[in-house]
Specification:
Chains A, B: GO terms for molecular function: (S)-3-amino-2-methylpropionate transaminase activity; 4-aminobutyrate:2-oxoglutarate transaminase activity; pyridoxal phosphate binding. Chains A, B: Belongs to the class-III pyridoxal-phosphate-dependent aminotransferase family. The structure is a homodimer. With about 500 residues, chain A is an alpha/beta fold. In chain A, the strands form 3 sheets. Chain A has a 7-stranded mixed sheet, with helices on both faces. In chain A, about 40% of the residues lie in helices and about 10% in strands. The first copy, chain A, contains 17 helices and 14 strands. Chain A has helices at about 1-15, 15-20, 45-55, 90, 100-105, 110-115, 130-135, 155-170, 180-185, 210-215, 220-225, 245-270, 295-305, 375-390, 390-415, 435-445, 470-485; strands at about 75, 80-85, 145-150, 195-200, 235, 275-280, 310-315, 340-345, 350-355, 420-425, 425-430, 450, 455, 460. Chains A and B meet through helix 3, helix 5, helix 6, helix 7 and strand 3 of A and helix 3, helix 5, helix 6, helix 7 and strand 3 of B.
Chain lengths: ~500, ~500
């Protein structure tokens, strides 16, 4: 333990990034370290689990939290345990717990009405709605996109993005539907409800409502017993690590997947279920933190264009700065990266951007009661201010490099336990040798004050907030090293 | 106009309800009448429409609102027009705008953290989560239900309610799926993703995500161009009004529909797409405010039981007190009204209750990132306090009787324009002779300070908040009478 700890300090001193950070102190409002009082879940959490179990399935609950006492990167539980949180509510807390800037939004009397009167945004928007969209969501719009639709959550965002692509694909212009289309659509039949499809990738996660779920292929438990659509599913590249040792193999693997995409598009067209859109994550998250090269995405985008399919990039987990750029797809370096980009989680509101061409022809085609929530837009505006003011994308880039370097060191140190360290920004992951070992490492780390998430079959995923500094990286690596040293 | 106005006053004096209300003044915080400065939308709204039109389709936007200045039953727009609002953000504002009790929730410093730190409720609930569920949602649980799952919106509530019924229908107990089921579900194929169906009714509205949309059959514009499922659709009774003159015909019509339901269940079982659940609204809202008798619902519930289908009552629009009882289905007088009851809108959070038998066997089967929003539960708790303290269910019953009586009077007065006045509580509606007349009445009324909603082909629907008093009923009726008198 001492040896590795020393190693990290050395690494820190050797890095131009860390020396910078050393001059900055962690924000005053934050704690400085984990502090554990009980095993997790502790006795209070266990009692609450019993109570909640009378009302809901609690099999997925880790522990109960004291959000009032949580600060920055540290999550405090009801038993008084304070953990370094690198899972951040399934990657949905952008700038840590109880950030002072967000507290101020709440205590500003001008904002009260926005929280108390949730409008039906599609029919009766508030006066400041266009301004708020411009200052928040449009200020971070992906390249080529000036239109955005807010939604309440990630699933609704993707469901409505799919609908937008289906509507676009039918190329109605402003022509009215035929009588037959009107009649058949009311009873779920073609041609009113056409047999269109969305092409997705094995290992993908795009949500759990029935439309989204038909494009989700990460874990059986998500899909079992739920009816689905016969839509095409392409393989996602399985890259071999370290990347620099498998350049040729990985390029071949990506080419194989792209070829399969084109085959499926042709096949489904022949089946009479043409592909209206292709949906993909810049990094498959829930499916196991699977990466592909910018070249893969660039070629995929061209295939979509060639075959007249809309190209939908799902940034629900990758968006919001966690990869070191605001959107994961920015790493591809394309001017025209997508036709639709959906978001949620760290953006606090769900929604999707789209190119002008995908504008629905009529009102009420994309619609629901709330169409988002302006109180979430208020918080988002402030989050964006903080990201700019505190240069958080740079922080993420720096911390991400330190984290990935640390993971490389750990897998070198423990090659029989760890492999495939990978990441972009702080969106990092590492594989354990099997799921039981992964789970055991996670529980032991939690009891030492480090709360991590899992994904895929045997992967640990790191999803810290954007305020995760190199200081926190070293805390993380030291705890992980402790656990691994004991495991050895 | 004077004549009818007098008539309403007479009615008011003659009613035991009104005499009571007369002693109460409208809450101090509210305005006392509409006040119009421009036609609606006014110049400021029109300019904002232009701005928002650059970002979104604004074809459904009526006008822009000044929510800060809105109070109780009165919605103020950006041009300073103050309207009596009987549409309440598509029936989603429970106790009027800027209710002082809700303002207090916002200014209570103990609540700040709940707004600022939105948790992933399925894995890391806050300490007070079980207590908050017990004091809010479980305190109003439908008969026979002790389990509730929150969700972010109405569509997600219904999507997950459907999933819950599919999972229940497969009767796994706690047995693991077969290897074949695991493998096939990952690629959207049977038996892992089985060909199960949900039976819905023509005219129904259950949401717009792809699963919900397969059970929605209210308007073509909702469904056109979106792929769907081959699920059975039964006719919903078309009752003739006045009900007392068509007792026999309506009973026959309901029997016909029930017979068709049984036929469809058998037919779809034979097709290999068995009906896992039946979903129905207590009053079809979006589809045109279509009612059926308690006897119809009672027999339908029995049919569901007989054929082993789950019975899902969608209370997204009828729930929350607007019918004079907290749930629309309470009017049926059944001890065991449903297996699943979904809600949203006036309850501020989405979600669904279900009977113990429908408890999912494993974690992560019903799951998403947020699983609701505790800040909405905070508001709901306070709304329920206000409903109890101010006896709002009685207020709704009284105001509803006055409103329906007034609509009867109007349709007697204007039989060539209006017909089929109907309602339960303040959940009332009346038909115009055609859609153009309906739309024209609504626009004229809006310019006189009365904002109403439409549904179905030619129906005006009334969806006031629960704080809508008889005083407001008379304002509504007087404006409507003015418009009709001019129309004549």
């Amino acid at each position: 333990f001492c040896k590795l700890s020393y190693l990290f300090i050395n690494f820190a001193l050797g890095s131009r990034y860390v020396s910078k950070t050393a001059t900055k102190s962690v924000s005053e409002f934050e704690y400085d370290a984990p502090s554990m009082k009980t095993a997790v879940p502790g006795p209070k959490s266990q009692e609450l689990l019993r109570q909640l179990g009378e009302i809901q399935n609690v099999g997925a609950v880790h522990f109960f939290c004291n959000y009032e006492e949580s600060r920055g990167n540290y999550l405090v539980d009801v038993d008084g345990n304070r953990m370094l949180d690198v899972y951040t509510q399934i990657s949905s807390i952008p700038i840590g717990y109880n950030h002072p800037a967000l507290m101020k939004v709440m205590t500003n009397p001008n904002n009260v009405s926005t929280f108390v009167n949730r409008p039906a945004l599609g029919i009766l928007p508030p006066e400041n709605f266009p301004d708020k969209l411009i200052e928040s969501l449009l200020s971070i719009a992906p390249s080529g996109m000036r239109r955005v639709q807010t939604m309440a959550c990630g699933s609704c965002s993707n469901e409505n993005a799919f609908k937008t692509m289906f509507i676009w694909y039918r190329e109605r212009g402003y022509a009215n539907p035929s009588e037959q289309e009107v009649d058949t659509c009311m009873i779920n039949q073609s041609p009113g409800c056409p047999d269109l499809s969305i092409l997705s990738f094995m290992g993908a996660f795009h949500g759990r409502t029935l439309g989204c779920l038909a494009t989700t292929h990460s874990k059986a438990i998500h899909k079992l017993d739920i009816p689905s659509f016969d839509w095409p599913i392409a393989p996602f590249p399985k890259l071999q690590y370290p990347l620099e040792e498998f350049v040729r193999e990985n390029a071949q693997e990506e080419a194989r997947c792209l070829e399969e995409v084109e085959d499926l598009i042709v096949k489904w067209r022949q089946k009479g279920k043409p592909v209206a859109g292709i949906v993909i994550e810049p990094i498959q998250a829930e499916g196991g933190d699977n990466h592909a090269s910018p070249d893969f995405f660039s070629k995929l985008r061209n295939i979509a264009r060639k075959h007249g399919c809309a190209f939908h990039v799902d940034e629900v987990q990758t968006g919001g700065g966690t990869t070191g750029k605001f959107w994961g797809h920015e790493h591809w370096g394309l001017d025209d990266p997508a036709d639709v980009v959906s978001f949620s989680k760290k953006l606090l509101t769900g929604g999707y951007y789209h190119r002008d061409e995908l504008k629905p022809d009529k009102p009420y085609r994309i619609f629901n009661t709330w169409m988002g929530d302006p109180s979430k837009n208020l918080f988002l505006s402030e989050v964006l201010n903080v990201i700019r003011r505190e240069n958080l994308l740079e922080v993420v880039t720096r911390s991400g490099k330190a984290l990935l370097q640390g993971l490389y060191t750990l897998q070198t140190q423990y090659p029989h336990i760890l492999s495939r360290a990978r990441g972009q920004g702080t969106f990092c992951a590492i594989d354990a040798c099997n799921d039981a070992t992964r789970d055991s490492i996670m529980i032991k780390a939690r009891n030492k004050g480090l709360f991590m998430g899992s994904c895929g079959e045997k992967t640990i995923r790191f999803r810290p907030a954007l305020v995760f500094k190199e200081y926190h990286v070293h805390q993380l690596l030291n705890i992980l090293n402790d656990v691994l040293a004991e495991h050895k």
